[in-house]
Design brief:
By secondary structure, the chain is an alpha/beta fold. About 35% of the residues lie in helices and about 25% in strands. Strands 6, 7, 10, 11, 12, 13, 14, 15 and 16 form a nine-stranded mixed β-sheet that branches. Strands 3-4-5 form a three-stranded mixed β-sheet, covered by helices on one side. Strands 1-2 form a two-stranded antiparallel sheet.
């Protein structure tokens, strides 16, 4: 079989998260001899076997050998904003109000992306109420190493590179700061942390639509934001405000995650929609963005976070971790497609007419 036959066999691949695509046009295929290397634009360890099966079936008639991997690309930088050294993509995890499980979603999403095969960091941008140190199980007295009196070395926790205001102050030190001071602290943590070759930096945002959100949008090239909400009507109202704010500052909304969507009684298995039903799906459809997933209301999530071992790390093969990893694959695939669309422009043809 010729190289053309091999490439043609991969021109109509059914990706589980991107639909029917041409891997060749996306630059995700290389051929050397009888070996075909496919490098997807997003990490997908959790469905590697299924993707390999589909690709091998497509290549069966060619006799080619398959090597499957992934290479996450950096998103295009918005005009006028410098990129963040050592980081390919910045994902803000936000909510319109507190109490919807945004921070627990952020840390488990970061761990899920890592479990899928990506290099991931997490920045706790909630200057006034940082919680990631406790959730990651980092000792209260741990301080980041300072490099050349200029940079912080990110704190390693469960394989993640992390930074939080909680690493720089004690839990008894309230941040009695006005907005500009908090914004300055965020910029320092973002730009003076020596992030090391991250595919994704998850930014756990404070609730609401204030100074920190504006600072992030104005100072660094955010790839997009994920909005966390519960199905409750009041939470959905605030989630809408969050979506509208990010749209006004030209940051893409990558999708909605519905948290605490369903409670299953551990004794009788009765299902209860404690905070309402279908709210996340409704808001996603209203704004034309994907519903990335719905997460259960489960006491284990809280218990594991309080113990400093988030669910994806505590029970990596469990059903709740599977929810987070499914969301991670959907998110990674969406970012890969967005990056491709932003890079591709109109074709220019020059003629001598």
């Amino acid at each position: 079989m010729s190289q053309a036959d091999i490439l043609n066999a991969l021109s109509d691949f059914h990706d589980p998260y991107r639909g029917r695509i041409n891997l060749v046009d996306r630059g995700e295929v290389s051929v050397q001899g009888d070996t075909v290397t496919v490098q997807l634009g997003y990490a997908a360890e959790g469905c590697r076997a299924a993707i390999e099966k589909t690709l091998r079936e497509a290549l069966a008639a060619t006799g080619a050998k398959l090597v499957l991997g992934w290479a996450v690309k950096a998103s295009p930088v918005r005009s006028g904003l410098p990129g963040l050294a050592g980081v390919k993509n910045i994902i803000a995890v936000a909510s319109g109000k507190g109490g919807v499980g945004k921070s627990s979603t952020a840390v488990n999403l970061a761990l899920a992306l890592q479990a899928e095969g990506a290099r991931v960091g997490i920045l706790d941008a909630d200057i006034y109420g940082p919680s990631q140190q406790m959730m990651l199980g980092v000792p209260a007295d741990h301080r980041p190493e300072v490099i050349d009196q200029q940079f912080f070395e990110p704190v390693q926790a469960h394989g993640l590179q992390s930074m939080s205001m909680a690493y720089l102050v004690t839990e008894k030190t309230p941040m009695v700061w006005r907005g500009p001071m908090a914004s300055g602290a965020l910029q320092q943590m973002l730009q003076q942390t020596r992030w090391n070759d991250l595919d994704y930096l998850i930014v756990d945002m404070p609730p609401g639509t204030g100074d920190i959100q504006l600072t992030l949008s104005q100072k660094v090239p955010v790839t997009g934001t994920v909005i966390v909400t519960t199905p409750q009507d009041i939470a959905l109202l605030d989630a809408k405000k969050g979506i509208e704010m990010f749209r006004k500052v030209d940051i893409s909304v990558l999708g909605v995650i519905e948290n605490m969507a369903l409670h299953i009684c551990p004794k009788c298995s009765h299902e209860s929609h404690v905070f309402g039903e279908g709210g996340g799906d409704r808001i996603a459809k209203e704004y034309g963005v994907p519903l990335l997933g719905s997460l259960p209301l489960d006491i284990r999530i809280r218990e594991q976070l309080d113990a400093g071992v988030p669910t994806v790390a505590a029970d990596p093969d469990g059903p709740i971790a599977a929810h987070y990893r499914e969301i991670a694959r959907k998110l990674g695939a969406r970012i890969a497609e967005m990056a491709l669309q932003q890079k591709s422009g109109p074709r220019i043809v020059i003629s001598n007419d």
